[in-house]
Batch of 2 targets.
Target 1
Amino acid sequence: MDNIKKPENIVYQKPRLLNDTDMHYCPGCSHGVVHKLIAEVIEEMGMADKAVGVSPVGCAVFAYKYIDIDWQEAAHGRAPAIATAVKRLWPDRLVFTYQGDGDLACIGTAETIHALNRGENIAIIFINNAIYGMTGGQMAPTTLMGMKTATCPYGRQADLHGYPLKITEIAAQLEGTCYVTRQSVHSVAAIRKAKRAIRQAFENSVNRRGSSLVEIVSTCSSGWKKTPIEANEWMEEHMFDFYHVGDLKTSEK
Amino acid sequence: MKDSGNEIVLMKGNEAIAHAAIRCGCDGYFGYPITPQSEILETLALEKPWETTGMVVLQAESEVASINMIYGGGAAGKRVMTSSSSPGVALMQEGIAYMAGAEIPGLIVNVQRGGPGLGTIQPSQGDYFHATRGGGNGDYYVIVLAPSSVQEMADFVDLSFELAFKYRIPAMILSDGVVGQVMEKVVLPPFKPRRTEEEVIKECPWATTGHTADRPINVITSLELRPEAMERHNLHLQEKYAVIRASEVRYEEMLTEDADYLIVAFGSAARIAQKAIGDLRKSGVKVGLLRPITLWPFPTERIAKLAEKVRGILTFEINAGQMVEDVRLAVNGRTPVTHYGKMGGIVPTPDELIAALKGDFEVEKQRG
């Protein structure tokens, strides 16, 4: 065995920027995979000493414990405003926010839309699992019609709760965005595509090409009350029908 | 951009704030229009400092966004500021509390107008409570400076940044519609270059400037879920506040040495009080003025000392009586303390103040 453990034989390893610590995320949650991709991309870009992340309120509030870069923790929904200032004041930095659907598409809608519409040179990583995970599975702006949550226990109904918000489609129409895409991380192929999307968004920030939004359609097995495998299957069956995966905008300014 | 040197120029208080910001090495202004302070953003837009000093100027989508931009810029080690008026500053309170918790320096200018709610666009000092008590959640204070002239509007910008970075605390200039809108003579501060990126990194080793190999990562947050650690953080904040209370109290006195009566007033109210005191002195009534320049920390000890030798203290504010609570706490029953003020955007006249003082303390009878 010892003969095999040589640097030249390594085919895969944990990214250096991903801290060697227990994550608080539930089994089957997409956050861990996306964190790993972000760590890999920053490392591969050689931007570890020039990256500033802004973490949200929500399950990813502790993102700063897992990725070994400088972080600011934002008030709920305000990450794009914070990132706006950081990037304008440190123009050569890679500045990104990491936000969930409640944070980005509900309480922080104004900050999201206006940062993107101004064309701030930031990347927004948007985890959409259609539910409020951290507070225990309440309805989110992205909760699907008919989907049951703690605050719509009989299923989302238009007359009671309104409709799920496709904020990524809105973002794609804004002049300030240069790259808007929807990805997922439920399979090896999807993870590889999502990584390329994150890389593109981060390069856009560094090269000041405008705003980028990468939505990751994600699972919340605890909030959905499913096993990790069931959650992945449910996501493919239901989420992808409404949240179509793929690029929405690839034009570069 | 005008470089007046020591030249005296005539301008509004709001304009003086903008010019002082450009001159004192401010890195960024983020704000949202609201009367009666919109000239700050307008002047900055007209001056185009991004072409000269490199200062960023951005009209944000809301006061909520503005204060979070200050959070982000301050946490990245930059000298950044916002300005607003009372309802807008009320909206910012969440962000100010986060800045206090995360120990982020920054400057918030409040050119006060009458309230509550949407209120009026006329001058007021009705935000004393939320400025000095920490208007957001949790146990915190911000340093509050109260300019009473256009000159002080200009001078307090750099002072605020110096204090904010010295203590890693938000600083507030609590002005009002009078001081913001009035045109007065002012000598603008000399030019001071913006700090270079290397200087920021050196002076703010805590800031999110990018994780280099010579230090651990910097995380700016107000969150801590372990109660013991959160208590330690709060105790640290309280220790910092004690140091500020001991070191940074600022006030100005006028004719207090022989005073039988004391008026305590800040900002534009102090200017009205100066006129009233001049008139009272002419008629033989010995009145003095204590003008708190820092509203937090408050000149508690000095007021307590003066309370021992005067017959009464009148607290004069353009509100229903807010600072009077701090004056009473300082005086602690040693001498009578009254309040006179007006609300709703009405600015009291010196004669009204004179009448109030005479009525409160039966000045004529005692003299007779």
Target 2
Amino acid sequence: MTKKVEVKHLTKIFGHHAGRAKEMISDGKSKDEILAKTNSVVGVHDANFDVNENEIFVIMGLSGSGKSTLIRMLNRLYEPTSGEIILDGQNVTNFDKKQLREFRRKKMSMVFQNFALFPNRTILGNTSYGLEIQGVDKATRDKKAHECLELVGLHGYDDRYPSELSGGQQQRVGLARGLANDPEILLMDEAFSALDPLNRKEMQDELLELQAHLKKTIIFISHDLNEALRIGDRIMIMRDGEIVQIGGPEDILQHPKNEYVEKFIEGVDRTKILTASRVMIRPNVVNIEKDGPRTALRLMQHNEVSSVFVVDSQHHFKGLVDAKEVINLIENDKRDLTEILNTSIPTTSPDTPIKSILTDISKTSVPFSVVDNEGRLLGIILRSSVLEAISGSEVENDG
Amino acid sequence: MMANLFTLNMTQIPLADWINKFVNWLTQFVGFFNGITNFIGGIVNGFQAIFDILPIWLFIIIVLGITYWALHDSKHWGLMLFELLGLLLIANQGYWRDMTQTLTLVLTSSLIIVIIGIPLGIWMAKSNTVHLIVKPILDFMQTMPAFVYLIPAVSLFGIGMVPGVIASVIFSLPPVVRMTDLGIQQVPADLVEAADSFGSTGWQKLVKVELPIAKSTLMSGVNQGMMLALSMVVIASMIGATGLGAQVYFAVGRNNAGSGFAAGIAIVILAIILDRITQAFNKNKKSSD
């Protein structure tokens, strides 16, 4: 994995007394104090991070956390007060006007929260804007823009105006406009936040799908943890202009660095809402009263698993058998699965919130079994299905 | 001195003297002012020559044609009928040439306020310093009674149409500048950011994004400016500008209410036609955006 963007000690202070404000930060003064004394607002303080090539890097934080300021420093819509942005070994912070323009035209485009489409231009005109200002001839740029619109799933809207489109469609145009320049890096500033939940999810899916074959480096801003977990390869959590934690989605869920992150996760914690029955899947079972080890083995081979759940004729949960032991049984020419039955499988009721069993699930290597009051097996919980549920994909299964 | 200031017997600040001296000082740049006079005079004569050549019927057809074109997708027959009857009435009253002279004054002033006002408004929107300097000047220009401009206009530009145009320009420039400034500043910040983020040059941003989006605000500034210029025609006639204003002014002198109103009504007809046509351009553009 190669580093695409390196950000070093990036700081942004709004106001006329940036120098003094910076000193005050290093003295450990609070933001309020700095605001009161110097009338300067600390947007971002000493941000250090790398973004890898072809990853979706999500910067997450509440409003006022400095995430929008940070992303705007990357293409220098905001001039950094200090620090460096290195892209492919080039120091973006030192670019002169012309280099900066070239860099914005070729390397980095941006998708905006409220779409920021030009109302006076058609959809095609919006999408081809970036090429138009580069002086690309009309036929070429229109062709490219049209392709990009097709790519994001907008067919037949080329000659319409933005006001004629729905929010979701408008953001598709925003995305197409961002892609038309063929940038290496796509900055997405809360790109899906203005959309309704259904549209948002659809756009997230589509972004992932696009990313699978476009392989851009995407820096995505979000205030929505579910979104971050869903689309982010890595997530950076910010608070009050400072970076709190950087890590993969599971990393952050399982090892929140401090109370703030914990609280953040809690705030949108799906594990508290989701019950066992929501995340369980249908297991492969053998009936202990009629199936022998050979049936069990065939089932395991067929499904490419190494263990299988055992029930009786009334579907009461009995336990789990392991492939190795089943083979043993067959070799010793025995029939009864009871001997090798592993009965120490953790069980839970369908109404249990995942939160309360999350630790156990992460510790044990065998799946959890979900049983009803009469001990009948309803389903099993795999670690992967829990993670999926937490990250928001669970909604899909609900329909 | 100090003591005097606090008594009723204060020394008068010679403000009027200073201004007179300033105006006198300005008159030494006679070449410069002659240049302006010739330039504006050229525009005036150009317009007037065109209007003098056009037969009345052709003029009316052109006005109707412009209206039809500007309003192509809304109801416009009423306005076109009004234009036809109104212009015929003006011709019938014998005010045709006066009307074209007034139109010349208004069009020349409008042309100049657009040429000066829009760039100045853009500059104001882009630079805080310019904004701070120009804003009070505009306030001053707009609140100073328009009559006052006539005096230096005469000493610098003589009498006739040109000083009339100058006085009209000074009076009607502020709304154009203000509305341009406002229109550009009202372009949503994220659109400006979008234009920047794709690597637009300042000029590209202005021409492709800011001006088109500010257009309707800008056009209403032009419309206002034009109406203000029209309101100056009577005043301008005091320094020799010919046209309908002069007819009103003469009627005042002769205490002739009838011909005063007749010329006044001709001004109103012209005002309505100009107003509706410029508004139509604006609305038309907005709806297609």
